[in-house]
Amino acid sequence: MTDEIRHTSGRVFFVGAGPGDPKLITLRGVECLRRADVVIYDYLVNSQILSHARPGAQLVCLGNHGGWRTWTQSQVNQRMVELAQQGKVVVRLKGGDPAVFARMAEETESLARHGIPFEVVPGITAALAAASYAGIPITHRDFASAVALITGHEEPSKSDPSLDYEVLARFPGTLVFYMGVTSAEAWTGALIQAGKPPDTPAAIVRRCSFPDQVCIRCRLDEVAARLASPAKMAPPAIVVVGSVAGLTEPLSWFEKRPLFGQSVMVARPGEQAGTVADRLSELGAEVIAQPAIRISDPPDWRPVDDAIERLESYDWLVFSSVNGVRYLLDRLLASRADLRRLGGVRLAAIGPGTAEALATFHLRADVVPDEYRAESLAAALAADARDKRFLLARASRGREVLAEQLRGAGAIVDQVVVYSSTDVASADEGIKQRLAAGGIDWVTVTSSAIARSLVAMFGEELRKARLASISPVTSATLRELGCEPDVEAQTYTMAGVVEAILQTTTRNSQKRWI
Asked: How far, in whole angstroms, is CA 331 from its chain's centroid?
């Protein structure tokens, strides 16, 4: 949608963000975020979902539980009206589903009074998410053919409470209480007084679908105590009451994943972190993104353009990174040339990841060494290197091993910087504090440049996490910097780093049970 269309008239989209996992938002919800001029979101919304907002969109948080003062409902209503009347596209982003205990009615009524168009995009509400993520089937053919969603915190100004606990005590199915953490003693007591057996199975599910999800199974008469001890449990949490919460064979899969409870800081550049972050998340880890280096355009494109003009004069084009592939070939295509310029040139890639990057341009690497390091690539090329012309597409910094060994084998070698690699100056303050407190289990170290940048950012505090190195070269750099790697990948790829973390964590977990 063009800016002209987007700004012709204001409208509001009420979007359900789901229970927490950023991937549980709907496609329609993502579409709305990409259109929005302003996103007004609740504090319970996972901030990762905001990455779907278009660049330049205004992001407005409505407050923080127990922190700064939240907006009043009238302020929220007024602000949405004002923005829409200015022609803005507004997304009102709500945790869970907008229509389930999210005060949507008050907000849509305000818009309707002012003639402002709106759309409601449903989301996955916590009761449904608990069925999938905590192994609690809220409906069951033998135990529960009905579900009641109940607020544990009614509006204080109501003249007559609407909850009839005698009816709820006799309800023939599952009861799910929202917003009932602080009022647990009152509503559990009312249920029991109304006739609900004290030993009715219950389950408290906090931060459903987040990497630190907690599920506590207990009895109805134990809920209030469990929420208060050993430390007061903070929202968001729901409580499931009914036979399904006490099934003897829990269906939980979420907390059984091998890296559940582990936090992993991924230090790769933001544009490269996605695949490994996805894999770690699938294995149950909490992924913390803290890039250590920044990848950008080379300081001067002219040498790259000159090399592109002379591509036909080379026998080999050698890539030692995914970034090298992307920056050089994107520049080639942007110059109105095409891949036919490479028709007589053989291609070499340092590893399978770099070869896969070539494949996205429909190019096949002629050489990929068995060991994914510069020495191995040089050895694979050296046998037929004499008097051959090589072009190495490289970063603004890095080792000279490849060029030196090829020259030693009699090759004619040119190098061209196709992208810049610079250190990130400072870490996110929250991540820095968490690392210092020992709250991060693993840090992935996937190059010597990243190792040096991490030590510069975190210093001695880096040793408070376990370090997962991608290769012997990176491990040697860490040792030079005074940091001993805890694990080293057997295959020098990000998949190898993940596998090393997985094997170590699984092995330690098994030891705990011996």
From this structure: 30
Listed as own residue / partner, the contacts of 349-356 with beta carbons closer than 8 Å and 24 or more positions apart are 349/319, 349/325, 350/319, 350/320, 350/321, 350/374, 350/377, 351/492, 351/493, 352/493, 353/322, 353/493, 353/494, 354/319, 354/320, 354/321, 354/322, 354/324, 354/325, 356/322
The answer to whether the CB of 111 falls within 8 A of the CB of 118 is yes
DSSP 382-450: HTT-TT-EEEEEEESS---HHHHHHHHTT-EEEEEEEEEEEE-SS--HHHHHHHHTT---EEEE-SHHH
What does the block give as tokens for 3?
Answer: 């800016």
Distances (CA, A) of 290 to 45, 210, 440: 21, 19, 12
> Locate tokens 């070698």: which residue?
413
176 with 239: CB under 8 angstroms? Answer: yes
Token reading at 440: 């991060």
* Preceding omega of 236 cis (within 30 degrees of 0): yes
**Residue 56 CA to its chain's centroid (Å):** 21
pTM above 0.70, yes or no: yes
Q: Give the N- to C-terminal CA distance of the chain in Å, as an integer.
A: 59
Strand partners, 506: none
Q: At what angle do helices 274-282 and 494-512 cross, to 10 degrees?
A: 20
Residue at 458: amino acid letter: F
DSSP 71: P
Distance between CA atoms of residues 144 and 123, nearest Å:
23
Full DSSP string of 200-236 = -EEEEEESTTSTT-EEEEEEGGGHHHHHHSSSPPPSS
Q: Distance between CA 416 and CA 422 in Å, rounded?
A: 17
Tens-of-pLDDT digits for all 514 residues of the chain?
444 334 447 999 999 999 999 999 999 999 999 999 999 999 889 999 999 999 999 999 987 654 455 788 999 999 999 999 999 999 999 999 999 998 999 999 999 999 999 999 999 999 999 989 999 999 999 999 999 999 987 665 555 667 999 999 999 999 999 999 989 999 999 999 999 999 999 999 999 999 999 999 999 999 999 998 777 788 889 999 999 999 876 678 899 999 999 999 999 886 666 688 899 999 999 999 999 999 999 999 999 999 999 999 999 999 999 999 999 999 999 988 889 999 999 999 998 889 999 999 999 999 999 888 888 999 999 988 999 999 999 999 888 999 999 999 999 999 999 999 999 989 999 999 999 999 999 999 998 999 999 999 999 999 999 999 999 989 999 999 999 999 999 988 888 999 999 999 987 665 443 3
Distance CA 116, CA 155 (A): 27
